[in-house]
Fold:
Amino acid sequence: MSDQWLFIAFILPLALFMPALPIALSRMIGPRKANPVKNSPYECGVETVGDTWVQFKVQYYIFALVFVVFDVEAVFLFPWAVAYDQLPLYAVLEGVLFIAILAAGLVYAWRKGSLEWV
Structure:
């Protein structure tokens, strides 16, 4: 039991040090001279025309979020579908419950109008 805590005691400082090292090195070594060219917005090599702060519709983000959620859920369903004939009854029922929750989420998003592309 104490060997496990000893392992954690060694790994925890290493886990904190590893991401902190590149951040600290970039602060120490990296250039810090600000000028108007570095502070200007850059977009694909094209000079910006007009205001660079453009508001996008939140609906696009919601549509993308709904897509990502259902895409990830499909990835979770794939192994279940492959092993369907080898699963016990409770695993099949859990999969059906999972699909029912997904269907409820889809109906909710549909009724809210999140799937309408305007």
User: Anything to note?
Assistant: The two ends are 59 Å apart (CA to CA).
